[in-house]
Every structure is written in C-alpha cells, then in structure tokens.
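Hello,

Our lab assistant flagged a job as stuck in the queue for most of the afternoon. It eventually completed. Since we weren't sure the result was trustworthy after the delay, we are filing this so someone can double-check. Below is the sequence as submitted and the structure that was eventually returned. Let us know if re-running is recommended.
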Amino acid sequence: MFLYRPGAQTNTTGGVAFAIEQAGFRHETGRNGFGHGMIDALVVGELYSNEEIFSSLRVSNAGGIRVSLQDKAVLRAVIMTSVHGVHSTMENPYHDRLEAGVLTYTAAGKLGQQTLAGVNSRLIEQKIFNFPIHGFVLVASRRDRSVGPKRWKYLGLLEYIRHYPDTQLDADGKVRKVWLFEFMIHSDHAVLPLSTDAAVSGQALTASRLRAASNSDDDEIIDESCHQQTEDVERIEQVRSKLLAMEPRNFELFIKELLLHCGFSEVCVTRFSADGGVDVNARAGLRNWVFENTLVQVQAKRWLHSVGRKEVAELRGSLQPFAKGAVVTTSHFSKAAINEASELGKNPIVLVDGFRLSKVVLDEHFHLAV
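-- returned structure --
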C-alpha cells in the first residue's frame, strides 16, 4: 500500500472521459490506448505488472485503492494489497490479511485517524451499484531485484461484505482508529475477459447475496474495544499485533501456554487441520475452583476478519458431552455470532475477541515471545 491524497483527474481515451481518483500525480495517455502494457483478460493466480494493471483497467498508477469513474459513477475499482512480511511496518502498517477466501483490507491512510471519505467511501458503493472490484496482492517488494516487473498476483473479483472500525498502530507506532473492509474473493472465473467483467461481477454478486440473505446479522460487527475504558490501548494493540503476526499453528500453541499460565491443567493441542473445530483441550484448575476439572474445548481463530455465527455453531456441534466451549480470536465477533453463543436452550459458548485476549496477556503478566 502507498500513502496518497485522494484527488480527481480526467483522462480521455477513444472519446470516453474517465475520471481517475488518485494521489496528486498525473498519468498521461494517448488517444489510442493506455500505454504498452495492455491486456484483454485477467487470469486468477497470474502475475501482472503495475503498468498492465493501470493501463488495462483504466485506473490510476499508484495507491492501494484505485477507482475509475465515468460521469461520477464508478465503472470499476482495483484494490492493491500486500501481506505481512513484504513491507516493513513503517512502509506498510496495515493488518491486511487473506484468510479462508476473505480479504480483510485496511482503508487508505497510513497516519492518523482514518475516515470513510474519498476512495474509502467508494468501496461501500458496490453494495448499490454492483461494479467490479479486482484484487491484486504484492508477492515481492520493489527492492527485490530477483523479481521482474510482474509482481502483482491477481486474486479474482472481490465482493464487499462489510466494514467496521478497528484500532491499529500507525506507521509512527501511535494508536489510531481505522476502518476494516471485508471482501469475499470470487475466483470461480479463472479467466476473466475485461470486456465482460461488469456482467460477470453483477451475476456473482447477485447469487452470493441471495445465499447470504439469511445471515444478515453477520454484517454487524461488535468491537469490544469501543466499550472498554482503559488507558493501556497502545500496549494492548502492540500485543494484538504480535498475535496477528503468528502462524495459525503457533497461535494454537500460544493459547495452550496461556491456559497453563492461567491455572488450567491437562492442556493439549489437537492435531492440526483435523480437529473438528476444537483446537485446544484443557481442564479447569484450582484457580477456577467452581468449575474445577471441567473439560474446556477451545477453538483458536488467528483471524483478522470477523468470526461469524457459523464458526460458533460448528464449535458447539463438536463439543464433547458436558464440555464448555470457547472461541478465542485476534479479531471481532459479528452480532449473529454473539447471539448464537448465548441463545436460550443451547450450550453457551464463551467468546473472547482480540482486544480482550490481549488484555488478558497483559493482566496475567504472560511473556509473549516476539
């Protein structure tokens, strides 16, 4: 991602005016095309150069969010993201993550409080106007000379699901409010002609929304940090950043060690990827004397995107008789997940979000290895 200032500029190609929201720079084009890197189709998993992307999709040549407009209406959008490790935190403080077919994307703006203005607000408009959003992920830093100009991997079409506030550390290490967007990745069309991307996107969005209509409460995310009064938000976010940087298996092992530290006994991690929804088993110890020796089964979600009703219901279905269940995550829970966890007549499930988990690490003086 790149720091930029949302602005607007118009280019004319073939008699059609395209307004490009961009960052105070200018990309000149001829009347017969957008440069020499033109392509007529995108292939999922294929690598492309920055020139091929902005020339063929008719968007700006820099910025994490690139939007092409015609008569102030969005024709298409492009999201350029990078995963942990490609950039340093100073260059890229965002917590962007690809998980389980979902891209969690931090809005534009490296420093200070983020707002839903400019290009950030354009992403939400897909819910109304059904324009295509194309996703690309950086596979190598620009400093890596062993990789040629084609270093952006095409993810597929993106479907805006939801957005919600979060707390993160900016490029200066200061706590700030950010906005997270969640996009479902549609990679069914392995080869996507650009001449039909609007039609294909419209069909995919319509079908997906019909399937998701029964779980509308999953669109509302509950951010526990907004309801907690604490003066230690910066330290909490520093801990959560370390947890988010863990590999999924290491996060499960971390949960095991934290439970042992907090007085649980017989703590063991289940076999990875074959756990039926249960990642860690433990017995309540003397510190939890009311429930001493009660079996506790934990699902550990080292996610950035939100945990929904489905995950809570799946854990409940995997619990052994008389066991207590808990979902522990580095992210947030949807309203539907919270309702499912406490629904009358069902075995209650304990939910621990990233803010609360990080606070437990600090309150229990648990040493967290970097």
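-- support follow-up --
The delay was a queue issue, not a problem with the job. The result is valid. Residues 90 and 171 are 5 Å apart (CA to CA). The two ends are 24 Å apart (CA to CA).
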